[in-house]
Amino acid sequence: MKTFVLGGGCFWCLDAVYQKTQGVSSVVSGYAGGHVRNPGYYEVCSGTTGHAEVVAVTFDENVIPEEIILDMFFALHDPTTLNRQGYDVGTQYRSVMFYATQEEKDLFEKAIARNQPLWSKEIVTEVSRLPEFHEAESIHQNYYAKFPEQGYCQVIINPKLAKARKYYSSWLRA
Known about the structure:
Met_Sox_Rdtase_MsrA_sf, 6 helices, L-methionine:thioredoxin-disulfide S-oxidoreductase activity, two-stranded antiparallel sheet, about 20% strand, peptide-methionine (S)-S-oxide reductase activity, oxidoreductase
């Protein structure tokens, strides 16, 4: 099993897709990259903690290649916008990949290079050493499954799920 810690805007979006991905055994929403110990959601949303909203995606690389996990990451958000995803603005919504090993760092940098031709602007995804990971409050875990009718889920997450189904249908569970 392997775990990648990735941030691409609101963690609910990445969580929703990776929860439906074959070979993924767990997705934990959380916060990483900041200077405050044990931050809470409202602190992180204030933009004052330095943390990004992230997901820790644990998967079996014998079932789903790590390249697919990373290519999905680049398809699910706009990695060319600095510190924003749509209406979510601030460093807490930055595009970021946190590595634990040099091998992961190299893999992440290769994923950026592989995905760059798909974008007309430069990818600005940050690649940083994994600091302490703080698990988000329970309400944020598997959010889409709990609240599929909520407005944010309908307007923001559903189109991302549709895009994932279009390009990665063979890797997604119903």
